[in-house]
Design a protein that fits this description.
The protein is 17% helix and 38% strand. By secondary structure, it is an alpha+beta fold.
C-alpha cells in the first residue's frame, strides 16, 4: 500500500503538468481578427471614358461603367453609373476581346474590383462610393454591342 500511494500521486500530477504548458504555437484559438473578408465585385455593362495608366508620368487612368448586371456582391449597383476616376493603375489588367484593338465608348465589358464584403442592407449609392475609391483589378472589353 505504501508503494501504491506515491504512484497514484505521480499519476495525478502528470496530466496537470501537461495542461500547464498551454497550447503549442500556431495551434489553439485565433486571437484577434484579420478584418473583413475581401470579395470580388464583378460589374458588367457598357464601358466609356477609358484612359490608360501613363507610365511616363505615373498618372493613373480612369473608366466609367453603366452597370447592367453584377455578381451577388454588387447586385445593389444595377442601373447605376460608376466612375473610377484615377483608379486604373499600373497593376490593373486590361483584357481585350477578339477583334478589339482598343477600349471604345459604349463597348460591352466588365470591371472587377476587390473590396471588403459589405452588408446586403447597404444602399447602392453607399456601396458605389466605397468601390469607386478602390483600385480596379481588371477591365475586360468584349467589343461593341451587337
Amino acid at each position: 500500500m505504501k508503494k501504491v500511494l506515491p504512484l497514484m500521486i505521480v499519476a495525478l500530477l502528470i496530466p496537470s503538468a501537461a495542461l500547464a504548458k498551454g497550447p503549442k504555437p500556431g495551434k489553439g484559438p485565433v486571437v484577434g481578427s484579420h478584418g473583413k473578408a475581401k470579395v470580388l465585385y464583378v460589374l458588367k455593362g457598357k464601358l466609356s471614358g477609358y484612359s490608360a495608366y501613363d507610365s511616363s508620368t505615373s498618372t493613373n487612368g480612369s473608366i466609367t461603367i453603366d452597370v447592367r448586371r453584377a455578381n451577388r456582391h454588387g447586385r445593389a449597383l444595377k442601373g447605376m453609373q460608376l466612375v473610377f476616376q484615377g483608379e486604373v493603375t499600373s497593376d490593373t489588367r486590361i483584357t481585350l476581346g477578339d477583334g478589339v484593338s482598343a477600349i471604345a465608348d459604349n463597348d460591352r465589358g466588365l470591371v472587377k474590383v476587390r473590396a471588403p464584403r459589405e452588408p446586403k442592407s447597404m444602399s447602392g449609392s453607399d456601396l458605389a462610393a466605397i468601390l469607386t475609391t478602390l483600385a480596379v483589378r481588371q477591365v475586360v472589353d468584349q467589343g461593341p454591342a451587337s
